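Reading a protein record of the kind used here takes only a little practice. To see the layout at work, look at the sequence and tokens printed below.
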Amino acid sequence: MIRNEEGLRLEEERTRKAGELARAAGITYQLMPANSHKIEALEMRLHAAQSGGLMLRDTVSSDEIYEIAAAWTGKSRAELVIDDD
């Protein structure tokens, strides 16, 4: 997106110098603001995802594995538990 914004600025400058003022105005007043709004929306989504209090760990417990396997297979946790007796 940011690279696109830089490209739009270069394109606007090139078209303005070439006398294509309608195209330059379209870039300046339509494409660049739309791109800026997209960037702002993505930044807000990123901030919301980062501030959600998510914590990642390096290890998982066997209980967590059972819970996930039960959710995927539709079986109860008791059906998945293996007795080592």
